[in-house]
Automatic annotation (TrEMBL):
<dbReference type="InterPro" id="IPR000305">
    <property type="entry name" value="GIY-YIG_endonuc"/>
</dbReference>
<dbReference type="InterPro" id="IPR018647">
    <property type="entry name" value="SLFN_3-like_DNA/RNA_helicase"/>
</dbReference>
<feature type="domain" description="GIY-YIG">
    <location>
        <begin position="28"/>
        <end position="115"/>
    </location>
</feature>
<protein>
    <submittedName>
        <fullName>DUF2075 domain-containing protein</fullName>
    </submittedName>
</protein>
<dbReference type="Pfam" id="PF09848">
    <property type="entry name" value="SLFN-g3_helicase"/>
</dbReference>
<dbReference type="InterPro" id="IPR027417">
    <property type="entry name" value="P-loop_NTPase"/>
</dbReference>
Length: 602
């Protein structure tokens, strides 16, 4: 039975003054409130394309409202909804506040005015029971027009997944706190610095990058006399001294992958203090007229070394930028060097095992960055698995099975494992796997087919053709490079590594193509170079005189499949083209028929 009530009133001094004495809980009880401007004069507000919202919690709601009347950024808000429950305490209210902030940011109808000062996944007594109440609060607010989409729709959206208003895991919070402490030390000392954040797939590197950027902007923009909630994780940085160190700071976020970059820009358009122009390519950094105080680089392993770029223009620009920054066309310089040259401070977020093309910066350069950061105590590992419900053990298991933790990608002696609650299955029929992905998408959304680049992209020139014709299925590659996962056709298409790296899915159906095979006599994985169709993924680097062997290509291809196999939050389905590889993987991945009979993942 619902124990809470939501009281709605006009956000005016007169309305609050009349409301305050009606109930002692209005002045002496922990509550959560939502302020918005969705209705002005009975009509939808037109503040560009967005309305504004602010979520807060307080033990004295009436007094807190009076403080908000003095805030210029909230003076246009028109409605307040106060959520009151006889069982609420401070911990519950902090959790509900952060929950509503996250959901409102993910809904996308509002521009969330809250600053980012430390939302964390704090535990407290009977939290699971209160979380049920939160969902009821959400439903009532949605009926009242505050939310425009359902919880699953919000949680499956890029706006939610890439929002700066995320609850940090413990090791993410430790990393952010350490980064802030070290960065402020270096800013105060006037010394340059390089920080490295290292983590496997699903540990939340992109979340940390976006969170940090928003947090630094909020600290820089905070007012000297602003009321600071001492209960928030990073409240100690919203004080005199830190604010001044960030005065007029020039910050940029570098994202190498086009699809992920455009998705983050979409989030920044809806976030106060952040602008889509902050999200850049390495080329844009290189050509920038001014240097940066701080550059945060997500997916640093996808930055480029000197190599044949996708276009003649980019080849010319690589040379021009290198000459501009270093005085000559030094072909040993990489985009890592550009970033370092153009900024006093850098934060590199990376996972060398996600390097998937010869043009990517070499692993040895990334490793040297890690070693340097460890020596200067500016290295922060992320360990907790935020994506895959099977936990970090699953990611390590996939990498061991594919041998991506060894120098030449040779499978190791791996003991088969089961992951309770995670739906991992090997399909003998692509028709059946495709049907299961469709069923999962109808059930929970965000379920897609993915594949290695083992088929030519025929539909790039002929939209009536099919790219993948296999096992009774006719399939097409992704029809867009940007935000493919959320595009209308995506459930009927197949995504490549270039559309999914950095994203997550509820269920991933991975087709391992004929580019990866298993040599049963030699007991090792091998590649079929002729079945790998990413031209940039296998071409030699004539500029640097590098020739890529089959062992080199094997590393890239197994890295690609390791990335694809770790996209699924709830489950991963696998179909394998090579019979020998299918037989090898059968020892490590439950067969679809057997899995249907067992409780695994059900």
């Amino acid at each position: 039975m619902t124990s809470f009530e939501i009281v709605r009133l006009d956000f005016t001094k007169e309305a609050v003054r009349a409301w305050a004495p009606r109930d002692h809980r209005n002045t002496n009880w922990p509550v959560v409130y939502v302020l918005d401007d969705a209705k002005v004069g009975g009509k939808l507000a037109n503040r560009g394309a967005l309305n504004d919202v602010y979520v807060g919690e307080s033990r004295n709601a009436a007094a807190r409202m009076r403080q908000h009347f003095d805030s210029s950024e909230k003076e246009h808000l028109s409605t307040v909804r106060v959520i009151v429950d006889a069982t609420f305490n401070k911990s519950v209210c902090l959790d509900l506040e952060s929950y509503l902030i996250r959901m409102l940011a993910g809904d996308g109808f509002y521009r969330v005015l809250n600053r980012n000062d430390g939302i964390t996944e704090a535990d407290y007594y009977e939290r699971d029971r209160y979380r049920e109440t939160f969902r009821e609060v959400f439903d009532q607010l949605r009926r009242d027009g505050v939310f425009t989409r359902s919880i699953p729709e919000i949680e499956n959206s890029d706006l939610f997944k890439l929002s700066p208003f995320k609850a940090l895991s413990q090791d993410q919070a430790i990393a952010v706190d350490g980064i802030l402490e070290g960065l402020f030390e270096d800013l105060e000392a006037g010394t340059d610095s390089t920080i490295v954040v290292q983590g496997d797939p699903g540990t939340g590197k992109t979340v940390v990058a976006i969170y940090l950027l928003k947090l630094l902007v909020d600290i820089a923009n905070s007012a000297p006399d602003e009321d600071v909630d001492s209960d928030t994780l990073f409240s100690e940085y919203f004080v005199d001294g830190y604010r001044e160190l960030l005065m007029n700071i020039r910050i940029g976020l570098v994202v190498p992958q086009q699809s992920l970059r455009e998705s983050i820009k979409k989030v920044f358009r809806k976030t106060p203090g952040l602008r889509p122009e902050m999200v850049m390519t390495a080329f844009e950094v290189g050509f920038a007229a001014e240097d940066f105080d701080l550059l945060i680089v997500d997916e640093s392993h996808r930055l480029n070394q000197r190599a044949n770029q996708p276009s003649g223009v980019q080849n010319r620009n690589f040379s021009l930028i290198t000459q501009k920054l270093f005085g000559s066309d030094d072909k040993t310089k990489t985009q890592l060097d550009w970033i370092t040259k153009k900024s006093k401070h850098q934060i590199f977020l990376m996972d060398a095992a996600q390097s998937v093309r010869p043009a990517d910066v070499p692993p040895e350069l990334l490793n040297s960055l890690v070693i340097e950061a460890q020596l200067t105590r500016r290295h922060y590992p992320l360990m907790s698995q935020m994506r895959v419900q099977a936990g970090s053990d699953y990611v390590a298991y996939v990498r061991r099975v594919l041998g991506t933790t060894t120098a030449i990608s040779r499978p190791q002696v791996v003991a088969p494992e089961l992951f309770e609650g995670y739906d991992l299955r090997l399909f003998d029929s692509l028709v059946e796997m495709r049907a299961e992905i469709r069923r999962r998408d109808a059930e929970v959304g965000l379920s897609r087919l993915l594949a290695g680049y083992a088929w030519a992209w025929k539909t790039k020139a002929d939209k009536t053709a099919f790219d993948i014709e296999l096992d009774g299925c006719q399939l097409r590659w992704n029809s867009t490079q940007t935000d493919w996962i959320a595009s209308p056709k995506s459930v009927d298409e197949v995504g490549s590594i270039h559309t999914v790296q950095g994203y997550d899915l509820n269920y991933a159906g991975v087709i391992i193509g004929p580019d990866l095979r298993y040599d049963a006599e030699e007991h090792k994985l091998v590649i079929d170079r002729g079945s790998y169709f990413d031209k940039k993924g296998k071409e030699n680097n004539d500029v640097l005189g590098k020739k890529y062997t089959d062992d080199d290509l094997l590393r890239f291809i197994t890295n690609i499949y390791a990335v694809l196999l770790t996209r699924g939050i709830r489950g991963t389905y696998v179909y394998v083209c090579d019979p020998a590889l299918r037989a090898y993987l059968r020892a490590f991945i439950p067969n679809a028929v057997e899995a249907n009979l067992a409780p695994l993942g059900r």
